[in-house]
Write a sequence for this structure.
């Protein structure tokens, strides 16, 4: 159970970083 919870946190962190990176790209001012 703890292993699955940790794995879920890793996936959430990856998704958050991906969204944050995409958002920074979209809001980047040339």
């Amino acid at each position: 159970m703890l292993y699955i919870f940790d794995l879920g946190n890793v996936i959430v962190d990856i998704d958050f970083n991906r969204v944050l990176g995409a958002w920074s790209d979209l809001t980047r001012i040339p």
User: Anything to note?
Assistant: The chain has one helix and no strands. The helical segments are 2-26. Residues 6 and 22 are 24 Å apart (CA to CA). The mean pLDDT is 85.
